[in-house]
Amino acid sequence: MIGVFDSGVGGLTVVKEIFKYFPQEKVFYFGDTLHLPYGTKSEKTIKNYSEKIVSWFQKENINLIIIACNTASSWAEEYLKNKFKDIYIFGMIEPTVKEVARIYKDKKIKKIGVIGTSGTIKSRVYEKKLLEINKNFKIYSKSCPLFVSLIEEGLIKDKITKEVALKYLKPLKEKNIDALILGCTHYPLIKDLIYEILGENILIINPAEALIRELKLFFENNKQIKNKKEKNHKFFFSDVPYNFEKIKNFCFNKKININFEIKNPFNEKII
User: Fold this and answer.
1) Is 184 known to be catalytic?
2) DSSP per-residue letters across 61-121
């Protein structure tokens, strides 16, 4: 069983890839809708939330966990790896950077755009790690704070989302970027809109797809790993996920039955 957590429903884009490439694995998903969005929270707060989630996963005997949130990956991944040394933890940043390293020469990538939450962009983690690959990269980062809220509201194909996207992406289009990193797991849900604005020739890098490459290598090299075996997927949220059915259908492009439970691992009083 693979544990996956995110601030809300964005992590379902990662689950989609797991379903596709690892159909034999069951998913234990947690969306922290109580504290959504993570992108506006401080580093200390993100570490605190992430630690409590992973502690709960640990109690459920989940020993392979994906941080399906770029903000949490930016601020908390190394912290979690140091604290939970007996758990295999994957974030979204490293696989994405490795994917760029793998393809940038063949794809002739020189100018890279990065879009993400305010927290992810503020951390500058993508910029730092990309420049370690090639110091000559031109990197243009842009925070897109409204995207998560619009997607969580189910306004994926609404005209207001297009207007916001036009405003956010205009500076990147003017820079004639070669590639764009979707630095938030919510953003693949509006990938078609991004193509519409930036053009079909842009190379869009989806961290969820890059993560799958890392997981394949991990499973190939760690065949002795014994993870918790379950018959069914399990989905939990810390508060009722707004427009869950609509977003779920957008994500999986088909009707899929997902039952979820409300779970609060934070020991907080909810009014």
Assistant:
1) yes
2) T--EEEE--HHHHHHHHHHHHHH-TTSEEE-SHHHHHHHHHHHTTTTT--EEEEEE-HHHH
